[in-house]
Design goal:
This protein has helices spanning 9-20, 61-71, 75-82, 95-108, 142-152, 198-210, 231-236, 288-295, 348-366, 379-389, 415-434, 442-448, and strands at residues 2-5, 25-29, 52-55, 84-85, 90-93, 112-116, 132-134, 157-163, 166-168, 178-180, 191-196, 263-269, 276-279, 306-308, 311-317, 336-338. It is an alpha/beta fold and 449 residues long. A hairpin with a 4-residue loop joins strand 4 and strand 5 (90-93). It is globular and about 65 Å long.
Length: 449
Amino acid sequence: MIRIVGGGLAGCEAAWQAASRGVRVALHEMRPVRPTAVHKTDRLAELVCSNSFRGAKLEHAVGLLKEEMRRLGSLVMRIADETSVPAGAALAVDRERFAAGVTGAIEAHPLISVVRGEVLRIPAAGDPASPVIVATGPLTSAALSAEFAALVGREHLYFYDAISPIVLAESIDRSRVFRGSRWDESADGDYLNCPLDAEEYRALHEALVTAELADVHDFDEARFFEGCLPVEVMARRGFDTLRFGPLKPVGLTDPTSGRRPHAVVQLRQDNLAAEHYSLVGFQTQLKWGEQRRVLRMIPGLEQGEFVRYGMIHRNTYINAPTVLRETWQTRSNPYLLIAGQISGVEGYVESAASGLLAGINAAALAQGRAASAPPRTTAMGALAYYVSHARPADYQPTNAAFGLLPSLDNPPRNRRQRRQALAARALRDLADWSGSPRTHDERASAVLS
């Protein structure tokens, strides 16, 4: 039997992969016996920061990663596709239906037992027939964090993560906003866009840089992951930083004026019923009262009712290059594997991908076979190689990126064609590694085009 600690994306994907290969699994999840600061339910795979799985096309590295996962039978990707909501060129999900779908599939599998309760120590993993996967995520409990500190032999890496607010759809003033997606001329785009003129942007920027922040308690230095900076941190980096970041107006035309706005705050549908919208790129550590004041300065949100305010929490990561092999096995114990954000990857899809490979390899070990990693030419293989070979002294968690893949021998000059060629090579090499068919299904071909 494989023991998996943590019922998030990585833990659920690992459990599904192992059980799908005929290995019995015990999946330990501490909620609801032990709650966290940000989770709201007892469901497995609950999404707390965003409902977006990011880019859907194969010319995006995370899109390639998702396609590789689909071809390996990913539960997370199947449920994400089934519970998707409109999000332009990205994949976003109804987070409640997504968590319910994953939970239902895991609990219904005859080889998976879900055990509720906190695990206080990293389980012993010395038996080849009983590997252990730790996938406790960035909100690892204090007891297990101490265990990881002893395992790593040095300080943890730590980063603060911030969550975006969610606004009630019926409280949005539709006369002030317009629907559209970037570079899409149709009137039925997937985002609600709140246009700001120069004066409105100036006032919002001033409010963000002067608003009062929430207390980060007694933690040490606040270090944020560059890919998920609080909006007020970006605002303090320069007056126009937001206009070149999450508030960039490029590719959008305000139908009222017929011109591109000075800046735009985008609202993304958060559930299938379109009752809630999240503010794209507005993760924040402002105090809740300040959030209400500042966010109501955004055109269309003057009477906004927020069903969830943004918040900040501490994420914990191990120094992966000192601990992990490319197979997500630990260097010190081949029967102990670590996956998910605690392993030093960043993002929902990357976390689930690490769990997918950890589950495949744990099943292989339990069945007396060797663990293996996909080629570096695949998105999953490149991510595994980075996590296990990056420079430990300045290691930082990473998202999937084409820069992690080896270059092509004769790359096209056009960037889009180059990325498509990298994706095509990755899928061929993944098929060779996994033994799956090389043929493209209709959906994958459509994504590539």
